[in-house]
Write a structure and sequence with these properties.
alpha+beta; Aspartate Aminotransferase, domain 1; 7-stranded antiparallel beta sheet; 9 strands; globular
């Protein structure tokens, strides 16, 4: 039986951030940790080796097996930050005013934090966290 790779663990968020080569990306990650912490009122935790997650979402696979993932989270990817956020009723309207972004693989992607409105992003994260659905 295979083990799920994306599990909550005790790895250090700061150590993970420090592995990023670009100092700007490191600072953007710290900004996102603060933003997600305020929006979710949760302590950040590593999920797998590259997702900074907040809270827990329990779900069930079609075969009945239970699963667990962060309720909201983000990961610095090669070209953008991937945001793992549940859909909620007014998400599309909020994202119209957030700034430069795209969706790929069901997740929100933002290249640079200075290209978006951080107050709107915090609202999106808060509403996604409060929503009872699963993240992407």
């Amino acid at each position: 039986m295979s083990t799920i790779k994306t599990q909550e663990n005790d790895a250090s968020i700061e150590d993970f951030i420090n592995t990023l080569d670009d100092p700007r990306r490191q600072q953007d990650c710290r900004t996102l940790v603060d933003l997600f912490t305020r929006a979710s009122k949760q302590t950040p935790r590593m999920w797998g080796t590259s997702i900074v997650g907040f809270g827990k979402h329990h779900y069930q696979y079609a075969n009945g097996k239970p699963g667990e993932i962060c309720k909201v989270g983000f990961a610095p990817r090669a070209k953008s930050f991937a945001f793992y956020l549940a859909d909620f009723p007014d998400r599309a309207a909020l994202l119209e005013s957030i700034g430069k972004h795209k969706f790929s693989g069901g997740c929100l992607h933002i290249g640079k934090l200075d290209a978006v409105d951080l107050k709107t992003l915090e609202t999106v994260v808060r509403k996604a966290y409060q929503h009872e659905g699963a993240s992407c």
